[in-house]
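User: Hey, quick favor. My workstation is busy. Could you predict this chain's structure for me?
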Amino acid sequence: MSFVKHILLCLLPVLLFYSSWPPHTLTGCIFVAFIPVLWTVFNFNTGEKKLPDGYLFVFLYLTFFLINFALTSWVMNAHWGGGLFASLFNASLMSSVFFLVYKLRKSYGNKHALIAFPLFWLAFEYLHLNWELTWPWLTLGNVFSHQTEWIQWYEYTGVLGGSLWVLIINVLLYLFAIELLKKQYRFATLISAVLIFTIPYFLSQQLTPLLVNPEDNPVKVVVVQPNYEPHFEKFSIPQHKQFERVETLLDSVWESNPDLIVLPETFITDWIWESRIERSPAIMSMKSWLKDHPSTQILTGASTGKVLSDSDSLKTTARKSIGGTWYEVFNTALLISAEDSVQVFHKSKLVPGAEMAPYSSLLKPFLDHFPIELGGTVGNFGVNDSIFNLNSNLGTLTPMICYESIFGEYVSKFVRKGTGWICIITNDGWWGDTFGHQQHHAYARLRAIETRRYVLRSANTGISSVIRPDGHVEQFLSYNEMGVLNATISPSSKYTYYVVHGDYVGRLASFLAIVYLLQLIIFHVNNRVLSRSRLKK
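Assistant: No problem, here it is.
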C-alpha cells in the first residue's frame, strides 16, 4: 500500500467516529467506522512488499490517537497534561486490540481473527470499566446516547450490548465490501448485517410504549443550576454569596412545597468535618431554609473530611496534617432534612489522577510532581466502604457524583439495593463550553434506560435536566444558564435484566478473549521451540 493510501485509511475512521459521536448526529457512521482499520489489518503484508510489524502498530496508534484527541481533547480544559495523557494512553490500548487481531490473523487465519476482534474489543472496554486506570468515555455503546429510540433494549444488555451491535455490523459490512472487491456478488452477508441492525432497532420501538403509565407515589422535585464558572468563580466567591443566589432561585418554588431540592457537586465549598457536620455553618444555613418546609429535603454536594484513628492511618487515602493528625478527604453528597441527621455519601468511582493515584505505588511519584487540581483539592480521596442509598421521606434515592454516572454496572448495584430514582450531581464547567458537558449529560440518558429509573441531573454549570426512564429529556437548562427545574417524578421498584445481571456481555467476551489470547501465546511458544530444534539439527 502506498503512503497516501495509509494516510487516507488513517483519517477516514477519525472522520467517521467524529461524525457519529455525540453531540453530532450522524450516528449511523459508527457502523462502518472500523472498516478502514479492518481492511488495513487484514491486508497488511499480504503483497510482495513487506513492512515491519512495527509500521502497522504506528499506523494504528496514530489513527486511534487522532480519534481520541478529536473526541476528548476537551479534557485538557481541566488539565492539559491529564487530557493529553488520556488520549495517548487510550490510543495505546485500542491499537493493541487490533495488533492482537493482526497477530491472530497471521497465526490462525482471517476467520478466527474476525471472530476474535469483537471479543478483544469488548474485553478492552470491560477492563476499562473496572480497573484503576479507568477511562470508559469512548465505550462504543455510548455513541447512541442521542438516539435513545434505537436502544431501549439496553435494559437487557447495558451499554456493552450496544458495543457488540456496532462491532458485529462492522465485521459483516467489511466482509461484504471484500466480496464486492472480489466481484463475488453474494448478498447473504449484507442481508445478515441489515437484519442484525433492524431487529434490535424495531425491538426498541416496541419497548418504548411500555413506559407510559407512571407508578404511584409521585415525588415533587426541584433541580437547581447555580451557574458558576469553576476555574475562576466557583471556588473564589464566598459561600454566603453562593447561598444568596440559590435562595433567590428557590423563592419561586416554595409554594409548590417540593419533596426534594437537588443542588450540584461541591455546592458547599466551605470545608466540613464530618464529626461536626450538624454544627457546620453551611449545614445550619441550609436547615434554616427548611424551617417552614419540614417535609422538604435538600441533596447537595460538599467537600468533607474525617479524622482517622491510628488503626486507619495506614489507608492509601490517609493524609497527615501539619499537626500530625491523620484524616481523609471526600467528594461528598449530603441529604439534609429540617430535623433529622444529615445523611452522608462519598464518591467512590474516582477520576484517575485528579482524585486518586491509580496503582499508587507505581504512579504516585509522577502524580506528586504533576498533580491535577480540581476545586482546590488534590490527591487520593476516600471512598464509601459499602454500597448504600440515601433515605428520603418518599423512598430511597441513589446519588451519583459526576464521573460515577458513566459506569452502568456500578449504578445498577445501587438500584439492586432498592433505589426509586437516581440523582446525578456534577460540575461540568471544568471542561468549558465543549463536547465534554454535552457527552456527559447524554450518557446519563443511558443510565435511565438501563435501570428504568428517573434521572435528575444538577450541574453547577453544564446541562441540568430531568430524564425519563426511557431516556427522553423532559426538561433541561443549557450550559451557562442559571435557573431551576420543577418536575414530578415517579419512583420505580422494578429491576431490569441488566440491573440484575450487570455487564455479563463484557464478562463473557473477556473469558473468550483470554482463551484466544492463550492460544496465540501457545502458538508462538510452539513456533519458537520448533525453530530452536531445527537449528540444533
